[in-house]
Amino acid sequence: MIPLEYYLVVASALFSLGLYGMLTRKNAVNVLMAIELIFNSANINLVAFSRFVTGDTEGQVFALFVIAIAACEAAVALAIVMSLYRITKGVSLEDASVLKG
Amino acid sequence: MEDLAPKIIFWVFAALMLGSALIVVAGKNLVRSAFALLATFFSVAAFYVMLGADFLAGAQVLVYVGGILTLILFGVMLTNRIYSLELNTPRFQVVPGALVSAAIFMILVTVVRVTPWKQASIVEEGPTTARIGQALMNQYVLPFEVASVLLLIALLGAAMLVRRRTDL
Amino acid sequence: MDRLDAVSSLKYFVPELVLVLTLIGVLLCDLISKNRAPMERRLLIVLPSLFGLLVALFFSVSIYFSASGPDPSDAQALFSNMVAFDGFGSLLRILFIFTAIIILLFTIESRELRSVHHGELLVLLLTVTVALIWMANSINLLMIYLALETVSVASYIMVGYLKTDRLSNEASLKYILFGAVSTGTMLFGLSLLYGLTGSLDLYEIRAALMSEQVVASSGPALMVIIVLVLAGIGFKTATVPFHFWCPDVYTGAPTPVTAFLSVGPKVAGFAVLVRFFYGGMASSTGEQTWTMVGSVDWQTILMGISIITMTLGNIAALLQTNLKRLFAYSSIAHAGYIMMGAVALSDRGIKAMLAYVVVYLFMNLGAFLVIIVVHNNTGSFDIKDYAGIWRRSPMLTIVMGIFLFSLMGIPPFAGFLAKWYVFAAVIQAGLVWLAVIGVLNSAIGAFYYVKILKTMFMEGSDTAEPSSKLELHPLYAVLLFVLVVPNIVGLLLWGYLDRVTEYSHKLLDVM
């Protein structure tokens, strides 16, 4: 049996990596991926505690909700990215036409 | 000897998870990062299996790999100029960023090590699907409904933002 | 305290049910009215939303008054200890629904929103409103997180509602990335708290934190947990160091949405703060004061945040030239003042927070309405374009003056009452120097509020004919009246506000 602490350390590492990505990356989609890492690290914690500390499914239910929320956030974030992409593309095209004229 | 197998499996998946996560946050290529994220999600699902959370492992694969990752890849590939979509907020450089996250990691590891976590006296074994289903319909019925409102609104909002026509 | 199951909880849950039904109904109305004329279609979505909100307001007010006075035994834990039903939540429920009604009316004649369809915006507004109520009443970590995310996701979309506008989109992207990181960080903290105490229920968490062996050894873990959780709460309340998103998002969002964000989520964030710290990490001594549970001195942490937040908010506001940006920093500063109430660790502190948010709602929404009216006429948010407003509309200038003096906390107006409450609460808690810092900050704040007013009295330098009257839509005139009156007669309502907060500061308590 793997002790609880091992899972927690791996989750902490994943959390720190996510934080690193969020601090250093400039690209919006990359930051979004780093955020997914943070969500996953918290979920590992929840499931591990659910198994070792409480021995029931409480933490698993929480993790299930987190997965649903993460999906919502990713969908909305990507929709905003697409919307912004459409605008910025439009702007650059306009710039080009100004240059031509 | 039987004791060794789970340990090896654990460390293999832990290494896979953290290694791919490193590629996700430090890789130069966005598409490669997205595929590395796939490996991370799978290793997390493997962790769930090791922790006896079979239903959750399934949900992880379905939602994260089948849904979120596909969405991200779709977004990346559809908008190939997305590389230029950069945030104009102050960003950390690689070295300070690494130092900050390393410091946070050290703090978290210390906390994990010094805290005497409680141990459950009884651990409910076996498949979790039925138990999770019952919990969702009894104790967690309100969060379940709140989540449905959240999903509805996310669907509505995402569709509205991406739709081309502005008058609708 | 009873522990009610889902079915017996429903009768305490009528306003929320009405709101959820309304949002689904408005969504359907929006769909079936697709082929109607624009005006008709607008009515078909605005009227049902307004009707639903008014019905919900009616039910929440009647719940509030049917509760038989200041008796803690009215309090219930609903849905197997997911949300609380108590005086605190009942007051906030009224505030949120009232705010939503005001914002709904703001959107109708706003120039920024004129070119877009309002259907989804109203559905989003209703969603945020009901989620704010859930957020302010949650007593379970899962429920806190879920409600907080529902509020967040819906407000990300609201900020980016002008999808052809680059600023609005960028604001939305910044908001969602910053928000997701903050709430993710908070989630990690919540997961550790669950592991430390073995429960998701705030009251069970408190019981666990009070037990001997946890107190002895949980110091570092609890410290980390509190810092992580404050990331999420700080994001919602826009307190330092999680305020970075605030100026950009407030500037980019459509102004009615900005006005909503500056009140709704901020107040709900403070409600979570109170529920989390007073419900899970403190216990009442029975003599109007509270003691911290566990081995971490979170009072000092909150005090530090409060001081830095108000100072930084006020100083940064001095430098702004865009009015929406200025009000973003001003709302950060006000978050600092509200936080002072939480620092006091007393019943009086909670009362002060409630009194502050009630008054803040009126003065801040009022100021934003003036910004909307001026923008409708001039199309600008720049302070320099406020020059000459006095000539163009003396009424509007006077009304804005009242809101600004109220925000400053100058005596005859309601803002003074709010400040009085928080300063008195911290002084009573023995933190005189904190009150002094608060007063000094109010003095700094006066500078930039007066600057706005001074500009309004100046001659307009622009070429636009200075004599042209400012157009004021009758609806906005009525709204301005509704918002300005409580600010003027604030001091007369002192006794009433005192009674309201006396009843409402009572949190559900299992001890």
What does this structure look like?
The complex is a heterotrimer of chains A (101), B (168) and C (511). Helix content of chain A is 90%, strand content 0%. Chain A is mainly α. Chain A has one domain: Helix Hairpins, CATH 1.10.287. The radius of gyration of chain A is 20 Å and the shape is elongated. Mean pLDDT of chain A is 83; it is low at 90-101. Chain B folds into two domains: 1-85, NADH-ubiquinone/plastoquinone oxidoreductase chain 6, subunit NuoJ (Four Helix Bundle (Hemerythrin (Met), subunit A), Up-down Bundle); 125-168. Helices cover 72% and strands 0% of the residues of chain B. Chain B starts with a helix and ends in a 6-residue tail after the last helix. Chain C is an all-alpha fold and 511 residues long. Chain C is built from 21 helices and four strands. In chain C, the strands form two sheets. Chain C has a two-stranded antiparallel ribbon. The termini of chain C are close together. Classes of the chains: A mainly alpha (101), B mainly alpha (168), C mainly alpha (511).
For this entry, give a set of tags.
heterotrimer, A: 101 residues, Helix Hairpins, 3 helices, C: 511 residues, two-stranded antiparallel ribbon, 4 strands, globular
Residues in β-strands, percent of chain C: under 5%
How many separate structural domains of chain B?
2
Main pleated sheet of chain B: none
**Contiguous runs where pLDDT drops below 50 for at least 5 residues of chain C:** none
Q: Looking at this structure, what is the CATH superfamily of the largest domain in chain B?
A: NADH-ubiquinone/plastoquinone oxidoreductase chain 6, subunit NuoJ
The general outline of chain B is globular
Count of DSSP strands of chain C: 4
